Amino acid sequence: MASNVNPTVRRRRLGQELRRLREQRGMTAEEVADRLLVSQSKISRLENGRRSISQRDVRDLCGVYEVEDRRIVDSLMQMAKESRQQGWWHAFGDIPYSVYIGLETDAASLRVYEPQVVPGLLQTHPYAEAVVAGALPEATAADIERRVQVRLRRQDRIRDERNPLRLWAVLDESVLRREVGGKHTMAEQLEYLNEMSQRPHVTLQVMPFSMGAHPGVNGQYAILEFPDASDSTVIYLEGVTSDLYLEKANDVQNYSVMYEHLRAQALNPDQTREFIEKVAKEYARG
């Protein structure tokens, strides 16, 4: 069982339980930090799942919250133990967006708006190599290949016939027009997009230039939803040096509404396939 545990998700669930226990006691994060002689930021990171939680942390927090039911304590301690295990992505070394990979691995559905490049889950190998090399001009060949392999491994969720990730992607037309890796690579990549869009759990839409300003002009974002009702929806915003994860109900609502507007304004899936095929033929002609 342990080999199937997702440590990122375990940290999130454990953090949610610890926050619930704190709120039941009517305590603030600052008060808990003062009791344990730690920083308030540590308590916040434990509760939002961004930091590994040790069994000692759980024991100390349960003591502060006066949790007397041993079954609850044991359950939380087990979650803490599992949260410190390594996910499959750790075998590839230090991956800066490992938190996101953990969330994506466990997600039931993913909605993404991408204004620049093809989403990683839908990239071909040559396209992925060109994207990574272009984005990281000082990276070594080994580093580039390592990142590409992680990206390709992530695509297992799309190909999983038993429990596939439901993917809905809205792509700006610039994604199709940006010549990444040369014309042959682009023609191959666009043909692959149309192939993947035929799968029942993958939906693609293109936002054409002719639409003008739209709700996605502020940049890329993703909405991850999970099979367990206790796991809150996460909004993911990718950054150059750090990423942002939003889970507050108001933030989730605002981004979800924006996404509905994007889907309404973009070409429908059939129109999108026709549009992609047209652009792919332009690349194939050279």
From TrEMBL:
GO MF, one term, reads: DNA binding
Protein name according to UniProt: XRE family transcriptional regulator
Q: Which domain of life is it from?
A: Bacteria
Organism of origin: Streptomyces reniochalinae
SUPFAM superfamilies, from UniProt? lambda repressor-like DNA-binding domains
Pfam families for the chain: DUF5753, HTH_31
Q: What region holds the HTH cro/C1-type domain?
A: 18-72
